[in-house]
Design a protein that fits this description.
The protein is mainly beta and 102 residues long. The chain has helices at 53-58, 91-99, and strands at 10-22, 28-38, 43-51, 70-74, 78-81, 85-87. The longest helix has 9 residues, at 91-99.
Length: 102
C-alpha cells in the first residue's frame, strides 16, 4: 500500500461574532473579522483584524484602495478573548510585531 503525504495549508475562517480588539494601553485597533487555521493540526495561527482608520497610519499599514485595511495578528499576542479581544502588547510594540514576516 502506498502512503500519501497530505500537505497542510492555511485556510481563512470567517468570524461568527465581531469583537473589538484592544491593546494593553486601552486603544481599540479594530474589529475581529476572522482567523487563519493550520489544517495539519487544526489550530488557529492568527486572527484577522479590520483596522480602524486612525490606526492604519499609526501602525504603518498599507491601505487598500477600495477596502478597509486588514492585518493578521499572531495568536501569541492574544491575552484574553471575552466580550473583546485583548492583546498582550501596546500600540508601540504592535507595529513591530505586525512588521515581522509570518
Amino acid at each position: 500500500m502506498q502512503e500519501t503525504t497530505v500537505k497542510s495549508r492555511p485556510i481563512e475562517m470567517g468570524c461568527l461574532e465581531s469583537k473589538n480588539v484592544i491593546t494593553t494601553d486601552g486603544r481599540m485597533i479594530g474589529v475581529l473579522t476572522g482567523a487563519w487555521m493550520d489544517t495539519s493540526n487544526w489550530t488557529i495561527t492568527s486572527l484577522v483584524v479590520e483596522l480602524e482608520k486612525d490606526v492604519v497610519a499609526e501602525l504603518n499599514v498599507k491601505k487598500p484602495l477600495l477596502r478597509t485595511a486588514k492585518v493578521t495578528v499572531p495568536t501569541s499576542t492574544i491575552l484574553n478573548v471575552a466580550d473583546v479581544v485583548q492583546l498582550n502588547t501596546d500600540m508601540a510594540n504592535l507595529g513591530t510585531i505586525l512588521a515581522q514576516p509570518t
